[in-house]
Specification:
Layout lengths: L1 E9 L19 E10 L2 E7 H7 L5 E3 L4 E4 L1 E3 L11 H8 L4 H6 L4 H10 L2 H17 L2 E7 L6 H17 L3 E9 L10 H18 L5 E5 L7 H13 L3 E6 L7 H8 L3 E4 L5 H10 L2 E4 L1 H6 L8 H6 L4 E3 L12 H12 L3 H8 L1 H6 L17 E4 L6 H4 L6 E6 L2 E5 L14
Parallel strand pairs: 1-4, 1-5, 6-7, 7-8, 8-9, 9-10, 10-11, 11-12, 12-13
Antiparallel strand pairs: 1-2, 2-3, 5-14, 14-15, 15-16
This protein binds zinc ion.
């Protein structure tokens, strides 16, 4: 397959094997009138159209004239697998009830936990497939999925088994994270420490030995898990081969960023209230900050992470949807639009954050996140003439085509025209 004549081909090819920081985040390594050659699911060549078509003959040619070509989006933070929905609570939140208030009255996460416990694995797979379809159509080709709506060993295993099935069944690559410490379940509310000990002695060993997850994540917040508990769980997970991640400083400045740096987490999510010291520590340790502006937007926190300070402090910034039952968003394009407006990231920085830095947050940068020879051919063709449109034009899907593992899996040009557009009848 050849993709030719792209107005802008964003290769994001870098000079180092590290996540992009500081000014590097603005360097998209753009080839004008660019082309990509693909064979056997891999990228064979990248360069000027003239040169690539001289070197390779293809059975299938895609014209990207007037369009922008870039790596598939990597979404490094989602809670993909859950049952039920919480639109009633959304209405209450709009009317002023806070997230933590909903939680303490048995709503919020705990409602979704109840519904997810009741669901069979087949149902969870079916729901997950629909969500992955929506993500793929909007350009996401690699996604992380956290468990955490089960909160018993059996239900967490069930969610992670559904996640494994989703990775096998769907063309989107699904990276699995165990997050038993997402909330304290109702049966342990009077003794959260007992639940922590269940995670430490039963869940983490079982999930690691069955190879059901690659990462372990912990929600560190008042009313959930303390810094000290988070640290214990992540140290334990690390010792059995689950790489640590953390949900930190989402609603208050607890010191989660500092802990992430301290234990050498691969990434830290949210960071809305992180201290300056915490941010500097992330930069020193190279912990990827996964910012989730759609989550702050959806929960109406009224504040966003300080992306500018992070970029100035050499923190590698990535962007994720934070998809879950109270932040129901499948589109990294919308997240980019929010990152530009609410966190003052430039379109180029936001694209870097949603591709190559997202790949680093999932330890997948050797495979995806840039368009370079040898990498997996996960490629987007967007129906806009340059990268600045990504973020600028929002609320519609800019995807024209998605190529996944070298196969054309989404082609919106080929869709039948909507009836109301037809003039001939
Ligand atoms: Zn999350």
């Amino acid at each position: 397959m050849l993709i030719v004549n792209a107005d802008e081909l964003l290769t994001l090819a870098g000079t180092s094997l590290k996540p992009r920081v500081g000014k590097e985040m603005r360097e998209l390594a753009i080839v004008r009138d660019g082309a990509v050659a693909v064979r056997d699911g891999r990228i064979l060549a990248v360069g000027k159209t003239k040169e690539v078509v001289r070197a390779f003959r293809a059975g299938y040619v895609i014209s990207a004239q007037g369009k922008t070509v870039l790596p598939g989006f990597v979404d490094p933070h989602t809670h993909l697998v859950f049952a039920g929905s919480r639109e009633d609570e959304f209405e209450m939140r709009v009317e002023g009830v806070s997230y933590m208030e909903l939680m303490s009255s048995g709503g919020g996460i705990l409602k979704t936990v109840k519904e997810t416990r009741k669901a069979r694995v087949e149902k969870l797979v079916e729901l997950g497939l629909e969500r992955l379809d929506a993500m793929l159509i909007h350009g996401t080709t690699t996604v992380e999925a956290k468990s955490g709506y089960g909160l018993t060993t059996g239900d967490e295993v069930k969610i992670l088994e559904a996640t494994r099935r989703l990775n096998q069944l769907h063309s989107v690559n699904v990276v699995s994270t165990f997050m038993g410490a997402k909330a304290v379940p109702i049966e342990y509310l009077s003794n959260p420490e007992e639940f922590v000990s269940l995670i430490l002695t039963e869940m983490i060993p079982k999930i690691a030995s069955r190879g059901l997850a690659e990462f372990c994540d912990v929600f560190c917040e008042r009313g959930s898990f303390s810094l000290e508990q988070a640290k214990r769980m992540l140290v334990k997970s690390k010792s059995v081969g689950l790489k640590p991640k953390i949900h930190a400083d989402e609603f208050s400045s607890l010191g989660g960023a500092e802990i992430a740096a301290d234990i050498g987490a691969v990434s830290a999510g949210h960071l809305v209230f992180s201290s300056v010291e915490g941010i500097k520590a992330l930069g020193r340790k190279g912990v990827v900050a996964v910012l989730l502006p759609a989550a702050a937007f959806s929960l109406m926190i009224g504040r966003f992470a300080d992306a500018r300070l992070m970029i100035d402090s050499n923190v590698p910034v990535a962007l994720g949807t934070g998809f879950d039952a109270d932040c129901w968003v499948e589109s990294q394009q919308l997240v980019i639009a929010m990152a530009c407006r609410f966190m003052r990231m430039t379109p180029a920085e936001a694209i870097t954050a949603a591709t190559v830095n997202g790949a680093y947050a999932l330890n997948r940068a050797d495979e995806v996140g840039t368009l370079e020879v040898g990498k997996r051919a996960d490629i987007l063709v967007l129906s806009v003439p340059n990268h600045k449109f990504v973020g600028y034009r929002f609320g519609v899907n800019l995807v024209d085509k998605v190529i996944k593992n070298g196969r054309l899996v989404v082609d919106r040009e080929k869709q039948d025209e909507p009836i109301f557009m037809s003039k001939n009848e």
